[in-house]
Amino acid sequence: MGKLREDLRQYEGCGLASALEAMGERWSFMILRAAFNGLKHFEEFQSELGIARNILAGRLARLVEHGILERTALDSDRRKIVYALTAKGMDLLPAMVALRQWGDKWCQGASTPVLVDSRDERPIRPVALQSHDGRTLDLAELRWKHAEELLELGRSSENAA
Amino acid sequence: MGKLREDLRQYEGCGLASALEAMGERWSFMILRAAFNGLKHFEEFQSELGIARNILAGRLARLVEHGILERTALDSDRRKIVYALTAKGMDLLPAMVALRQWGDKWCQGASTPVLVDSRDERPIRPVALQSHDGRTLDLAELRWKHAEELLELGRSSENAA
DNA sequence: TCATGTAGGTTGCGAATCACTACTTATCCT
DNA sequence: AGGATAAGTAGTGATTCGCAACCTACATGA
């Protein structure tokens, strides 16, 4: 299978491109969401999302390839394949929730199920950027810094790529 | 032009689907990232990302449609079009950073520019989910709650988020 | 003023991907 | 064995992507 299209990755040393390489295709995030909601089996994903079977098969395979889901056949019934989130997959939760909160806020809101802290049943905070000591940061309070600058704190250079 | 493919949205009252409707296509996030980095013009996006011109035109138009970018012609030179982030677009920053941090962490890491707090030049925290009072929440501490449940609770204690 | 350059697109076309439906394979149940 | 079920594959159009060439409005400057 020769890909003609180039990896997004090569244009940037940026993790965003790598993330999109793994999760950027249509349906990937919806599948992930379903997985977070406890769905485990092919037919469950298929009927929940209404996605075409071949596409679903492709996406699941890709997510497994990228280590986001793990594929196991059940011992009790070897027809049944379990797709389970790995640690890497679970670590996508903040990104997914951030995206979802944005959608709720700006696109006709009113999302039915809401994430709550199971301790007190209160909704979680909006995802935000925070300084090392926990202050919430605004866009104006941020800048890009290159790795070299972090290492050599003595000098200051002025650029953001 | 009739779209045969259905909106992701219809399958879920979920903001995630709406968000993907606006940002889920290839290149959209990379364009957004470039916009956050100060790029404003068609040719700048094109040469920075190496994206095909027609695709870029389509994406920019779509992002404008969705109110994520704003398109303005400069008075000083009316050939020049400025694409600027709107408030809605800027509000995608947490989601983008979360995605990027995930990519940095799990996919061959080492992302060159890093976001820092401009006040003390220290890198920002990893994006995480937090309870209403600021505790960082683990996946095990979360559950989904439906709107009706929240309303029922609200009957005794008068509040809605 | 008219040639020339520039910014921001559009068009045409082949390749790749998506989506819908039907078919297949392996396994379980009785 | 016969039928049902889970998880895919295969075939077929429609849609989108990616590349290069082309187009148009505006700006510049000799």
Fold blueprint:
2 copies of one chain form a homodimer.
Chain A: H1 15-23, H2 28-36, H3 42-49, H4 53-65, E1 69-73, E2 81-85, H5 87-90, H6 93-106, E3 113-117, E4 142-146, H7 147-151
Antiparallel strand pairs in A: 1-2
The structure holds a DNA duplex (30 and 30 nucleotides).
Shape of chain A: globular
Major beta sheet, strand line-up of chain A: 1-2
* CATH architecture descriptor name of the largest domain in chain A: Orthogonal Bundle
| Mean pLDDT reading of chain A | 85
Outline the low-pLDDT stretches of chain A: 150-161
Describe the sheet with the most strands of chain A.
2 strands, antiparallel
- Counting structural domains of chain A, the number is 2
Helix content of chain A: 25-40%
For this structure, the CATH topology of the largest domain in chain A is: Arc Repressor Mutant, subunit A
* C-alpha-based Rg of chain A, rounded: 20 Å
Q: Name the biggest interface.
A: A-B, 85 and 85 residues
Would you state the CATH class of the largest domain in chain A?
A: Mainly Alpha
End-to-end Cα distance of chain A, whole Å, is 34 Å
Structural category of chain A is alpha+beta
Oligomer: homodimer
Name given to the CATH homologous superfamily of the largest domain in chain A = Winged helix-like DNA-binding domain superfamily/Winged helix DNA-binding domain
Total number of strands of chain A: 4
The DSSP helix count of chain A reads 7
Strand content of chain A: 5-15%
